[in-house]
Amino acid sequence: MSAEITERNLCDICGQLLFICVYSYMKPNFDLSLILNRIEDAIKPYPKAAMFELAERGYGSLFEQLISCIVSIRTLDETTIPVSLRLFDTARTPEQFLALDIPTLTQILYGTTYPDQKAYTMRGIADRIVNEFGGNLPADFVTLTSLKGVGPKCANLALGVATGQAAISVDIHVHRVVNRWGYVQTKQPEQTLKVLETQVPREQWVNINRLLMPFGKHICTGTLPHCSTCPVLDYCEQVGVERHR
Fold it and tell me: What's the predicted TM-score (pTM) here?
């Protein structure tokens, strides 16, 4: 009897291994351009990522994009957009920001996380632009990240949207999606950025955040992703996915 059980167990194991091998073999070669095209169609019913939406509404200068990205830190797009619009109704240039005192700016930023801290950050950025750069913010990654409160994500996003420079912005959605695909194997968004810069064609760099942010927010969600209706499931390794819709 024990030999019979062992034989059956071996048969089960062999069957499972065969399924895994066949399933892996059936995965097509990873085609990023095709994947992004499919995602572009899939996210059409959903709101655009906040920075791209604001640019379409006419708030596309490098300074405005940088300020909006600071607004967005730890804040949902549903809040980022109206707060940014309220802010730009009052001030759109570094000089106009310097004319606002901290309490007024903090009040305008109400609804975001850390409005007082962001008010000081924005005033500090405006002050450097006016007094160090003559009112014109250089479109340069090193300069942007030298501004207090500006990290690689905001610098790259502002550069990509405002100037069209090849720049990848990695937020939590982008980081999760590309790791779930198995396209990268990283622990932190900063690591993901470095790997993506070596693997993604430069002409697609700006599209990474433009497409994967809403895709990650609405389809490839953090919990219970919509795998059953995902347009790129056949390319996805579903790394870390235990349950899905």
Answer: 0.84
Render pLDDT for 94-106 as a digit per residue (tens, 0 to 9): 999 999 999 999 9
- Read off the DSSP letter of residue 233: G
What whole-number distance in Å separates Cα of residue 73 and Cα of residue 185? 25
CB count within 10 Å of CB 105 equals: 21
- Rounded Cα distance, 187 and 107, in Å: 36
Show the domains of the chain with their CATH numbers: 29-45+169-245 (1.10.1670.10), 59-163 (1.10.340.30)
| Digit-coded pLDDT (tens) for 195-222 | 999 999 999 999 999 999 999 999 999 9
- Separation of alpha carbons 123 and 67, rounded Å: 10
Q: CA-CA distances (angstroms) from residue 89 to 34, 78, 93, 141, 165? A: 40, 18, 11, 27, 27
Please report the pLDDT score of residue 147 as a whole number. 97
Token pair, residue 26, equals 């059936």
> For residue 39, how far is the Cα from the chain centroid?
14
Which residue type occupies 30? F
Query: Over the stretch 16-50, which tens digit does the pLDDT of each residue have?
Result: 444 444 444 446 788 999 999 999 999 999 999 99
What is the largest distance, in Å, between two alpha-carbon atoms of the chain?
A: 87
Question: Please, is 69 exposed, middle or buried when counting C-beta atoms within 10 Å of its C-beta (0-12, 13-18, 19+)?
Answer: buried
CA atoms within 13 A on the CB side of 232: 31
Question: Helical H runs in the chain?
Answer: 2-26, 32-42, 50-56, 62-72, 77-90, 94-98, 102-108, 115-133, 141-146, 152-163, 172-181, 189-199, 205-218
